[in-house]
Write a structure and sequence with these properties.
Blueprint lengths: L20 H27 L6 H20 L7 H4 L3
């Protein structure tokens, strides 16, 4: 499955991929499920021996920040409200 790998003319840049609307919707759903996992893991680590898990908590927070930035990039004009408002 090529998964929307259509390079734009004029470069080998990694950011030159175009995705179909269905592929972006699928990405949004995967992002949401990953975010839910990390948010649950964060709650677990904060509630159970937070002092011992300081480094893990910091890493999880960085990953959640990365997910938030990725979600902003994975929207498009005309996207259904269901996928646009996923969080």
């Amino acid at each position: 499955m090529a998964f929307g790998k259509k390079q734009k003319p004029g470069g080998d840049d990694v950011g030159n991929y175009q995705f179909t609307n269905d592929e972006i919707d699928l990405l949004r759903e995967c992002i949401m499920r990953t975010e839910n996992y990390y948010r649950g893991l964060l709650l677990l680590k904060q509630d159970w021996n937070a002092e011992k898990n300081e480094q893990t908590i910091a890493i999880i927070k960085v990953k959640l920040n990365m997910i938030d930035r990725l979600q902003e990039k994975a929207t498009y004009i005309g996207q259904s409200d269901y996928y646009k408002n996923m969080k």
